UniProtKB/TrEMBL annotation:
Pfam families: Response_reg, Trans_reg_C. This is Response regulator transcription factor. Residues 5-118 form the Response regulatory domain. The modification 4-aspartylphosphate is found at residue 54. The lineage of its organism: Bacteria, Bacillati, Bacillota, Bacilli, Bacillales. It comes from the Bacteria.
Length: 244
């Protein structure tokens, strides 16, 4: 079994060491940095499976680091910060973060969240699939093509950059066209932990997705609000073709 690598970017040595020890105790390989510049070097050299970022780093902030990481990688990014305002969390998610925890935090909860982000079944890099299975993982909605195997979304032939959770959310909804899901169901499916239910996280990720895939985000044709319930992916017979 391949050991997964976690990158911790944290300038507080005590927090960094405690986090590292808990992750290593749970079977992860851990690489650490205490500033943004070293984080990018580690990302390129070690290719971690998940990054844990502090926001208030010396030099580049965690927000800037996240933006730069997103240019070279789609690995899950979990922010760990003393900033508790909702605006800070929304900013982190808008910049490509997948999750946000505030300090002080439970190391056991952090490990659980890390496991949740890494356990989506279609992210298993070691799984070998036959060509017909890869073909079945492709979704086509008019000019939008979603490839569940390569995790690439194209609109009019052009790739659309998505964070890992944005892709997970889009692929799940697109795989169930016409079916309405509550915020809680989506959170449990994509984040994998019912106890971490956070409606705002879903709302922000849907908003970000719409900006990237909708011709007019203010009047979406793909991801539709179901008032008082949640969201569904609109099934349009003239645009939808699930290739098998």
């Amino acid at each position: 079994m391949t050991i997964q690598t976690i990158m911790i970017v944290e300038d507080d040595a005590e927090i960094r060491n405690v986090t590292r020890l808990y992750l290593e105790k749970n079977g992860f390989r851990v690489v650490c940095a205490d500033n943004g510049d070293d984080a990018l070097k580690l990302m390129k050299a070690d290719k971690p499976d998940l990054a844990i970022l502090d926001v208030l780093l010396p030099g580049k902030t965690g927000f800037v680091v996240c933006q730069e990481l997103r240019e070279i990688s789609s690995v899950p990014v979990l922010f760990l910060s003393c900033l508790k305002e909702e605006s800070d969390k929304i900013a982190a998610l808008n910049l490509g973060g997948d999750d946000y925890m505030t300090k002080p935090f439970s190391p056991n909860e952090l490990v659980a969240r890390v496991r949740a982000h890494l356990r989506r079944p279609y992210l298993n890099k070691e799984k070998e699939v036959q060509s017909e299975e890869a073909q079945a993982a492709r979704l086509v909605f008019g000019s939008m093509h979603i490839d569940g195997w390569s995790r690439v979304v194209r609109i009019d032939g052009q790739p659309v950059p998505l964070s890992r959770k944005e892709f997970d959310l889009l692929y799940f909804l697109g795989s169930n066209p016409g079916r309405t899901f509550t915020h809680e169901q989506l959170f449990r499916q994509i984040w994998g932990q019912e106890s971490f239910n956070d409606t705002r996280t879903i709302i922000v990720h849907v908003s970000n997705l719409r900006k990237k895939i909708e011709p007019d985000p203010s009047c979406p044709k793909y991801i539709i609000n179901v008032h008082g319930v949640g969201y569904k992916f609109m099934q349009r017979s003239e645009a939808y073709d699930h290739t098998h």
